[in-house]
Amino acid sequence: MTQLAEGVDTSKEEPPRSWLVRRGLVPGTRPQQILALATFVNMIGSGVFMVSSALYFTRVVGLPLAQVGIGIGLAAGVGLFAGVPVGHIADRRGPREVYLWMLVIQGAAMAALVLVQSFWLVLVALCVGELARSAGGAARGPLVRGVGGAELTRYRAYLRSVANLAGSCAALAAGFAVQLDTRPAYLALVLGNALSFVASAAIIAALPSLAPVPAPPRASRWAVLKDRGYMAITALDGIMSIHHQVLLFALPLWIVGHTDAPRWLVGAAALVNTALVVLLQVRASRGVDDTVAAGRAMRRSGVAFFLGMAAMAVAAGLPTWLALVGILAGIFIHTVGELWHTAGSLELRFTLAPAHAQGQYMGLFGFGAGLANVVAPSVLVLFCITWGVPGWLALGAVFLVVGSVTPYVVRWAERNRPYVEQPA
User: How many beta carbons lie within 10 A of that of residue 26, not counting itself?
Assistant: First the structure.
């Protein structure tokens, strides 16, 4: 009888090894398939809303764009603080139940957006949704760990590919609604997102419960806040996570305002990035199954980010075809860095966290990445748009330095871990 670390018996749930399983297109066990399906459905809805939220609030609700930006920013900031405490609850009560309820709360908050018409009510709904999203991410960490089992490294990468594939589908769906540009179309997107949370919760309900890992004697209630090594890794990863907005935020502004490259590159950048992540994330994660390999992956990602940003920067002032080549090369190299960063980041966040406190540790790591998303637009405007080519090179150098020091910080974090046990 095979059993996951948290006590989920999978001996009766593993399906026959079909062609899809052997090719890696479908995970090997039923719990893994269930969580992957829930992830796809969830990310379809979330992706649709991300693409169309600003248009919904301005064209349907009637809010000024400035209020929309303030509301989304405030909600994102408030949501950062839910991860650690709710992650602790997931550690002690079981992650499946906590994650399921967070999905339900997100669905309710999203559905409320079709009823509210004032800025303050919209802000309340957004804050509730962001709090539940952050808390759900913390609970999802130990759930992924328990379901992934012995194939955790590969399964995490698989879920990353699934999420990116769902995001691409969501962008297409949102594009049709934006093309229609009608109130019913935008309402359908918001309600569709609400239903996606409910559907994800229903799918998660099919998973068996994961028994909490007992805390060792004398374990601190808030262990992660005393783990200086993990907090340092979280800070470094947060800085590196700013790279996620480079292709989505900085590059479009750079292409249109500072280069002679064709404007269709704005859409192509996201398309190429997503396709490469979907196709290569599992392969890029092979061998990144301990902290030493994760540190090396982070170091390689810093080099790639520097080279990719340098290639995109020098496109300014070049003839059209050279600018096109430079930016395409930069997109490809930057995406390779993203693949390495994701592989290293996922390994560190799981492996450096003690088995009994995965939820609260995931909550802190999510705080770092979430804070990076909040500050990224301002940082990128300052470096890449205001300072121009020197700013692109300077920010690339920051990524290079952070990636270079990460392996040393990882070794220090391992030597000073407050607990001896390793996650299974």
Answer: 16
